Amino acid sequence: MILNNILAILRRELQQYFFSPVSYIFATLFWFLAGIFFLNFLIGPQSIVMDVAMREQQGLPLPPIDVAAEFLQLFWSVIGALSSFLLPLLSMGLYAEERKQGTLELLATSPLTNWSVAVGKLLGVVSFFSVLLVPIVLWEIIVIGAAEPAVPLLTFLWMHVGVLLLAAAVLSLGMFISSLTESALIAAIMTFSLVLVLWFLELLGDRLTGYWGGVIRHLSLLRHYNNFLVGIVDSSSLVLFVSYIVLGVVLTAQSIEYLRFARR
Questions:
Q1: How many CA atoms lie within 13 A of 142 on its CB side?
Q2: How many Å is the maximal CA-CA distance in the chain?
């Protein structure tokens, strides 16, 4: 029953995304920017690929370097940053639009549990973002398919798992912020500000010493995301991303529960 409710919310969210002009504008912007970075890192004058190719033509000695892996790490590092600052545009309307249109009251007074609605909405927006990554993955496969040595499959997979976890964490926290306001614009700005703080916690932690410096560094999304890009995946990184995702869902459910209470 609960699973059916989550799947019903998931289908509803996906239908809204795939029939919304705003979603297609977002997709076009995301693919356009990702394409520019991809081509620049691949054939740009300062790219690793072009540098190695020129050295080979000129007979210059080459340092030991895995060109394909370096290219992917640089590209996904930028895409991670780009995604973090574009994702608030996807999460801003998750609840704010429902509040504005009055449909949130229907959800709040329905027999659906708050957390099942929150989980369904989160799965919907993460699924939509996952679809946006499909063309990018195809670009990668075409370009690095003939790389020698081949990029280790696990490293390749962890890069994409990392970006999905990063997106789910940002979208989950953005969903909670969206549940607090009727203004999608305010939700986007607040989520963007929060992402900025979480993104640079590592820099702040580096300036501090001792226990609290380590704690703040550990909370940084950037630090753990970069670990995924180089194939370093430990339990603390997984726990941190899952904690942010669960925190967003729980806070959203509590926010809607407060709305239910206020309407009585």
A1: 9
A2: 78
- Token output for 44: 């740009």
| Cα 242 from Cα 165, distance rounded (Å) | 8
The rounded distance, in Å, linking the Cα atoms of 26 and 261 is: 35
Query: Is residue 214 exposed (0-12), middle (13-18) or buried (19+ Cβ within 10 Å)?
Result: exposed
Q: How far apart are CA 261 and CA 264, in angstroms?
A: 5
Over the stretch 116-144, which tens digit does the pLDDT of each residue have? 889 999 999 999 999 999 999 998 888 87
Residue owning tokens 């990554």: 133
Q: Considering the entire predicted model, what is its pTM? A: 0.88
Q: What Å distances lie between residue 23 and 35, 38, 125, 177, 191, CA to CA?
A: 18, 22, 11, 20, 18
The alpha carbon of residue 256 and the mean position of all alpha carbons in its chain are separated, in whole angstroms, by 24
DSSP 150: P
- Burial status of residue 250 (CB atoms within 10 A of its CB: 0-12, 13-18, 19 or more): middle
Give one word for 165, left, alpha or beta, with left for phi > 0 and alpha for psi -120 to 50.
alpha
Q: How far apart are CA 153 and CA 140, in angstroms?
A: 13
With vertex at residue 26, the alpha carbon angle to CA 182 and CA 126, rounded to the nearest 5 degrees, is 75
Cα(96)–Cα(85) distance, integer angstroms: 19
220 is written with which tokens?
A: 């940084």
- Neighbouring CB atoms inside 10 A of 261's CB total 9
Q: Where are the beta strands (DSSP E) in 25-179?
A: none
At 158-171, the pLDDT tens digits run 889 999 999 999 99
- For tokens 């080979």, name the residue: 56
Rounded to a whole number of angstroms, the CA Rg of the chain reads 21
